[in-house]
Amino acid sequence: MKVIWRARVVVGCLVLVALCFHQAPGKIVPDTKLDLTAGPGAFLGRALHLWDPQGAFGQLQNQAYGYLLPMGPFHWLLDTVSVPGWIVQRLWWSVVLCVAFVGVWKLCNAFQYGVPWTRFAVALLYAASPRMLGELSITSIEVWPMAMAPWVLLPLVTPAGRSMWWRVSWSAVAFALVGGVNAVATGATLVLPALWLITRRGTVKVTAAWLGCVAAVSVWWLVPLVLLGRHSPPFLDWIENAAVTTGMASVFESFRGTSQWLNFLSAGGGPSWPAGWLYVTQPTLILVSAAIALVGLLGLGMSSLRHRGFLQLSFVVGLLLLTLGHSGAAGSPLAPQLHDLLDGPLAALRNTHKFELVVRLPLALAAAHSLHRITQLATARGLHRRVVPVLVACLIVSAATPALLGQLPRREGYDAIPAYWRDAATWLDRQPGPGSVLVVPASSFADFTWGSTKDEPFQALLKRPMAVRDAVPLGSAGATRWLDEIERRLGSGVGDATLRQALTRAGIRYVVVRNDLRYDAQATPLLAVHESLADAGIDRVAQFGPVTGSTIEQPDATLDSHTRLPYPSVEIYDAGETSSGVLLPQSRLVEVQGAPEDVPAALTALGGDRSAITSSDAAGKLTGLPLTQTDGVQRREVSFGRPANNYSPVLTAADPGTQGRRALGYAVNGKETTRVWNGDLVDVRASSSAADAAASLHTGAGSGPFAAVDGDPSTRWISGRFGRASGEWLELTFAAPRSVDGLTVQFSLAAPTTEPVRTLRLETDAGALTSVVSATGDPQHLPTPPGLTQRLRLSVATTDGKDPNGVSIAEVTVPGMTAASRLLVPASVRQPSALVFRNQQIGRSACLHVGTRPLCSESQAADSEEPTGLQRSVDVPHGATYQLFGTALPKDGDALERLLVVPGAITATASSRAVAAPEGRPGAAVDRDLGTGWVAAPDDTAPRLTLRLPARRSVSALQFLTDPYLTASRPTGVELSFDGGPPTRAAVDPEGYVRFAARTARTVEVRFTRTRPLLDFDSATGIARTAPVGVAEARVVGADDLRKALDPNGPSGAVCGYGPGVQVDGTRVDTQVKATVRDLLQRRPVPITACGKDSGVPLRAGRHTVDFLPGGGFVPIQAKLTVRALTSGYAPPERSVDVVRSSPAELTTDVPARDEQSVLVVSQNYNEGWEAYDESGHKLTPIRVGGWQQGWILPAGAEQLVTARFGPDSGYRTGLLVGLVCCLLVLGVALLSRRLAPDPPLAGARRPGAWVVAGGGLVAGVFMSGWIGLAAVAAAIVCSWLVPRRVAFGLVATVVGAGTLVAAVQPWPGGDAGVTSVAVQASVLFGSALALLAGETSYDLSRLPRRMMGRSIP
Known about the structure:
alpha+beta, Jelly Rolls, six-stranded mixed beta sheet, 60 strands, 24% strand, AftD_N, CBM_AftD, signal
């Protein structure tokens, strides 16, 4: 019989192997680490050092050591014999499932639970549990501990005669094989063995020996883990917080094995975990998974279950570990306090769902016994003995449905990384000279049109150092902020010298543009990236792969408004020569009071020939540096999961943000710049805004609440919840009680908030009033409750309900109210030599350019954070006179377009326009440039274009010219009106002509009545819309000579006194702007200079307001005030040095002679672990340069060799070596201990009394679910006393089944009863408590205390 069942176990393993190979056959899918299939040998080699100079500008290995055993060697060995990557993956998955399956089989045999077929069945159910199948093909290393858990416990519980040392050593060996990738998941495998020893008697010696062996085999990953925690940036603050990780861990979801929050996550690319998504959305799978858990629960309650106390305790402890942090319906009362701990000192334990195995394994073991007893009961009742096995087989098949349907992996597999990516890596590695590689645009993950690697391919393919902004940057907070600044510049479509200088100073030689990123993975439009690089003078030097872009372009169809251009898959741009190290004389350094992202702009403002140390880094190390004070270290909230467009507007000092996180952003040292309110307002808040960092409806930083009171109707507050409008509110708080009579509100109906508000509720301290409002974008006077108030809240009550996608308010006006929002710059104790202020988020135009050719789409536009200019409040400790300079961008609007009017030419006006950018102005239809054109707004039902001639002319026809890249439907029918006369219908012929009898006229009004539709498909939604009518050029036959072209190189701008308005403490300073027409059309930055008699700006000691306001068609984005002495005088040049790395954690460089104290800078992240020494062995003082780069201070002296090493690396490697020795020693003990005499088996501890068990149950119930848990457990206690055990089991099945049915009827995402229903959670709590207590108490009433009986008992 044993041979037969062993054969059946082999067959079971083969079935599991077949299931694994059934998943996306032939495709490599993104699982755990790209390096494991693309280059496991190099990856394991890098894991032998703590410091990795190749990635993220130098970083600590992120748990790479954990892959040294067993996953890494497994992949490496198969890779060395040329096994295809996809087969290696499937073999590893097969190992995981088979290890789990055989482990539970053997554990059931050891405990003697059930009979062979029930052991076989529960082993399969364990291997096919929701957690196993849900995560197997996503992050298989995280379910490996769950697979190994039975093996860690098995040696301790085996009934075979074995010595104590055999038991503890083999348990430790199994634990060593769990690996150390995730310490929490690995540690979770120790919970059950620990509880086993706790529930035995006389185990002090065994426990001590076991703990010693476990500690010994953990050295190889514990030492690296400690060093990683000590020297790495606080990346745990940058990932999901406790509220997220425990948000779905309700009692019910924890009971059935679906508490992992990623099961419930689905985005545009589909579910994050496809199989996990099925387990929480499909009613059948909800019922099946709960039924399996229920079978195990019934087994836990059976008094015939061996070691019942151990399994019951394990089950309760597991549920507590999973649910203590859940704060939802029937959540734990300790959740808020636990969240504080999990987001603080216990952050490493934040993902409590990793304790899933502590619940699942006891339930599986108990199920083996339960199924046997159920079979016996069914047979005794006359059922055929095969009925229960057949039903169990159906249960197994149902539970494994996602695997049987091949739905475990994401639909992102690929055959192999394309050859052109390897070619690009080879080209980069062959280039001479130093310099790292920056991969753009930013993306949370590397999701490509050909498949998804999740990790950047260059991570495994490239030898040259590289960096990329992804979801979880691990370099440093400073480098991440700097990368975000680069991404903002690239994403703006505006490039200048600052971008190029910032890249080369960071040691970046090449910029790689990955045009084959999947559209939904692109955080920044590719058009903007290319335009920014071109404007910055960064040229393409190589390209690889086939062209990407739209595949449906036709005369009557386009994709994303013709913006998906055929770029090569991979392009490489050369930023210019750089060096791996540089020697900076102190006289060339400046101190910047700001953050890393402020340094590039500050240095460019100072001429671009200096380097910077931030004030917090210079303190106590370098003194006497010229101080540049910026408005940096701005208090903003960051959405850590987004790689771009992830910053909120600047917050007030008291604003905690909207995400409820412990850390607002990537924290750096320094006082924060905050938002303050002046005038009659002290605050403006909203229920949400599209400027919020994590808004689901995100339009840009300029859509915050302040936009509704800035006096500019072209700006607006937009609510931030996608698909919601009703219930959103905007609240104004006044400095003093005042009347709000005469309130005027102006809504905006521009996309994306096109649904009109119908009723608006106004709340004040004096009362509330609901008003019906007009469905227009015009200002509306609304009645308000009479009386004084210190607050005014405008709440959206109802909307049309047709397209509830946010609401926006352009302006709220209260008579006599003045409102000003400005940024408060923290004071400096030193006198600044320069003041540099800037708009960090300048937005993006709707028209981006390829060369001089605009491609316009409203979807490309992003709001500027400060469309009304720069308004700052700053302190200076001493009086000084500053020279004023600035930079502006052309500002969309009438003032700008007046600068584009050609005297004596035809002018044009229209009923609407698709974009606000000047390239889409009506006048673009008469500028002799087919690349520009006018397009009506999508909601314009009667579009009109009016042409006005400078004088009356005889005209006989119109011709409408089109362009293939103008996203517009072609006109085929029009109504013409001359000089206001009656309209005349006419047809447009195929050549675009509208012919009519010659007549003399000055104005021609064209109303478009029919079109040839152009379908515009949207990549994000797949929805096609008919493009509005548009015209590239309108020729007036008889007056075509009046259609005049703009001279792109012609001068433009604003003359002295008509530039942007600059006010210092309310005193106006005249400015001028010099620009070209091309600058205006392509939104290029242009200089602002002070003009007039005296361009100097005197500032006395104290606080000042400095305002750079829009004017003359320009909006300031940067302001600079400098003293003359800052830019004068000679400073020795910086000198490049060659940095040689003898190992990843050691470098040397020859430093030339120095006449003054200097700073040696290496192009890598600063880390306190790096130590440098000169030739004499003197330790150099480390200093952070530019807010993130590694530097050391060198005194003046002769040429010498500087050696630097990463100190913790020696401890890291020692830990690995000692850990290896310890593992070998424990393995030796395990092999030799079989010869030792067996020790007697451990005896179980005495079971606590019924009252103790009941009391413990009440406490556990309260901890899990508060009053609900207390009531459920109390009810279970009463029932356990009052009803027979079999009735109790029936009641358990009925109540849990009813709760499961409720959850299945309301599955995620349309419903969420499994997470939020109190009844569902109470049913599981009651059922669990009753099942566990049914064997502890008796239904014999004579055994109850007399007081509870209500009568005397003789």
